[in-house]
Q: What sequence folds into this?
């Protein structure tokens, strides 16, 4: 048989454990081309550049003629 705890853990003790597990802020960097905030080592979603070079060629939306 596996060992079992003798006494119940208090809510304060459980709260201390849960307080240590927290979300951290993302380490965002500035895109060299368009100055937008992006995740490091990823292609910029706004301009399609990575490390100063075009990787994804973005197409401009066509405007409807009235």
A:
């Amino acid at each position: 048989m596996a060992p079992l705890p003798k006494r119940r853990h208090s809510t304060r003790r459980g709260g201390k454990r849960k307080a240590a597990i927290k979300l951290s802020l993302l380490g965002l960097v500035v895109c060299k081309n368009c100055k937008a905030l992006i995740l490091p080592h990823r292609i910029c979603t706004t301009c399609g550049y990575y490390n100063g070079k075009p990787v994804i060629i973005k197409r401009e939306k066509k405007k409807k003629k009235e």
